[in-house]
Design a protein that fits this description.
heterodimer, A: alpha+beta, 4-stranded antiparallel β-sheet, 15 helices, B: alpha/beta, 4-stranded mixed β-sheet, 4 helices, about 20% helix, globular
């Protein structure tokens, strides 16, 4: 009962899970959640496997929250605990309480959920008449979510929640999905494994990202049909496992769907290779079954081998090689973004301010900002002072600018007193 | 306490760019070059670049929270706009940071609303102008709500509500503020 994080963590979990269940765009699965970190590969797999498991988890989370609120002798004020969530770790938790539990209470179950999963979801949320759950080792009270939300919200606000959540299509866009540009690891995994994703729009490029748990994700993908064809589409077989050298590996993907994608995931020293397949069935590791090496798996995208352009067009081999080198250089220069270059130019000096926030990594800080739409890109500290000096009561002005507001900002910021001494 | 204790210094700025194409990058490069060449500004500016997704608007409060979370000092002032004139806050008195020896915790300052000079006559929380800036602790438990695309006055109201009315207000010359047009004008026209 004294834990400050338990209630907001449950609230966030319920909201995240419900967002995933109500998401209608299959490209968005697994992309909106920083908390679950659930690699949900495809819509089909979600409906078959993940949905019952997730509904089960939501079930239990709501049950626990309900128990904390009403079941025990020292009942907890859920709203108060949510509002007093520590630091920015659970930012916007109260909003997510309303969204998550409101949707579970008053929203219709998603269309694609049927059978036992739908029944379980409706039982936990209060969409149905009460009855007991038979296949569990505890008795599930119905209308748990509705109890929780109606206990804490009344009057016009309750009406607003009901009116909003009762509309079936309003919540399908709570998380803005951005699957076509530079992707986060979860998005990339979701996209790679999604059969109906359009690979030519994926704007694929080399990325080295650090995940929240400290693992390193290196994604090497080239969206180059020419390269795919020249390499015969089977280059991955010859290159061998070299996941820590991303520049040495290459894989192609063509608009027609042929080719392969390689994703190297180095997490705590383990390296993986994922190649998506249209059949989602063949898992091999350099010709070996997946079961022999749990860290490496490979899926063929299609069984069709791409055509060889050299034979097709009968170009001089040397010219083709020159073009290939030039194109590779072009691809590499495209893959390195300006902020990455600038970040190396402007080294970030360490800031010696002791604060709970300072101990967080940037990825962790970003993962706490739950409501930002998935950015195409975010580069913190692209400019920072070379030798910042602070005193105890210094104040930082926080602003957001549009790209066209630079002149106004410079005009004002140059007048902003560096230090006002009394 | 009679002396000014508002030391202003660093700037934590989130720059929002619309696209990630070549033209946009070129403009960004020029902007960064321009900012880097100003020595006075260069010594206090923490600039973060956020490339906006195409789908839907971005909540300004979320961007301000982003600037806040990357602010280098403990105390921050949130500007929902770009003030045109220099801030003259000489009458703003903020108590120094206190230390609660019982709980071994830092006592956060109560939120301070910096209200423009022209509109300081016993304003209630609902009447605060959009150009009100807000001083608070970066590590405070209260953050602007980021639900959907909220207005700045909602953030002020939420801060006021979350602090149970325990806030301070002071007049500060922040007039002639302009809105940020390229962020789709999520906030209404500001009081000049």
């Amino acid at each position: 009962m004294q834990a400050r994080s338990l209630v907001p963590a449950l609230v966030i979990f319920i909201a995240e899970s419900s967002s995933m269940l109500w998401e209608e765009d299959d490209k968005c699965f697994g992309s909106g959640s920083n908390y679950l970190w659930a690699p949900i590969p495809s819509f089909q797999l979600l409906t078959d496997t993940f949905a019952p498991r997730m509904i089960d988890n939501v079930h239990q989370a709501i049950y626990l929250l309900h128990f904390l609120a009403f079941g025990s002798e020292n009942s907890t004020n859920v709203i108060e605990k949510t509002m007093q969530a520590p630091l920015p770790l659970y930012i916007g938790a109260i909003d997510r309480f309303i969204v998550g539990l409101g949707r579970l209470s008053y929203g219709d179950a998603p269309d694609w959920i049927d059978g036992q999963a739908k029944e379980a979801l409706e039982r936990s949320s209060g969409m149905r008449s009460p009855h007991q759950v038979s296949n569990r080792n505890f008795t599930m009270n119905p209308e748990l979510a509705r109890d929780l939300i109606e206990c804490h919200f009344q009057g016009p606000e309750m009406d607003a929640i009901w009116g909003t959540c009762d509309q079936p299509f309003l919540f399908c866009r709570l998380h803005f999905c951005k699957p076509h540009t530079k992707l986060r690891p979860t998005q990339m995994r979701a996209l790679l494994m999604t059969r109906n994703a359009k690979p030519e729009r994926a704007f694929l490029r080399m990325r080295a990202l650090k995940t929240c748990d400290g693992g390193l994700v290196i994604i090497v993908v080239y969206s180059c049909p020419l390269l795919t064809c020249l390499l015969g589409g089977r280059q991955s077989d010859r290159l061998g496992p070299a996941p820590m050298q991303p520049a040495q590996t290459a894989a192609g993907m063509s608009n027609s769907g042929s080719g392969t994608i390689q994703t190297h995931i180095s997490s705590h020293g383990s390296h993986r290779r994922l190649n998506p397949s249209s059949s989602l069935g063949t898992l091999t590791t350099q010709g070996k079954p997946l079961a022999t090496n749990p860290h490496t798996k490979r899926l063929d995208f299609t069984n069709e081998r791409p055509r060889n352009l050299i034979n097709l067009y009968k170009l001089p081999q040397r010219l083709v090689l020159i073009l290939l080198v030039l194109f590779s250089i072009y691809q590499f220069t495209r893959s390195v973004t300006l902020p990455q270059i600038l970040r190396h130019v402007y080294t970030i000096p360490p800031v010696s301010v002791v604060s709970p926030l300072d101990s967080m990594s940037q990825a962790y800080r970003l993962s706490r900002l739950t409501h930002l739409p998935n950015p195409v890109d975010f580069e913190p500290y692209i400019i920072s002072p070379l030798n910042p000096v602070y005193e105890g009561d210094d104040t930082t002005a926080c602003l957001c600018l549009g790209h066209n507001d630079t002149n106004a900002f410079i005009e004002w910021a140059s007048k902003w007193p560096s230090r006002v001494i009394p | 306490m009679a002396s000014l204790s508002l030391h202003l210094g660093s700037l934590s700025v989130v720059m929002v760019i619309e696209r990630s194409d070549r033209e946009s990058k070129r403009e960004l490069r020029e902007t960064l070059k321009k900012l880097s060449k100003l020595p006075a500004l260069r010594q206090k500016l923490f600039l973060h670049v956020y490339t906006k997704p195409v789908t839907g608007p971005v909540a300004r409060d979320a961007l301000l929270n982003l600037a806040r979370i990357f602010a280098p000092t403990r105390r921050i002032v949130l500007f929902p706009f770009i003030p045109l004139s220099s801030a003259d806050c000489r009458n703003v008195i903020i108590p120094p940071r206190a230390w609660n020896e019982t709980d071994l915790e830092i006592v956060h300052i109560r939120p301070h609303f910096l209200i423009p000079h022209e509109t300081t006559n016993d304003l209630s929380i609902g009447d605060l102008p959009n150009s009100t800036a807000l001083i608070m602790d970066r590590d405070s438990t209260v953050w602007c709500p980021e639900r959907f695309v909220s207005k700045w006055t909602e953030c002020l109201w939420y801060i006021w509500l979350s602090s149970f009315g325990d806030f301070e207000s002071a007049s500060c010359r922040l007039a002639s503020a302009i809105d940020v047009p390229s962020l789709e004008g999520q906030y209404p026209v500001l009081v000049g």
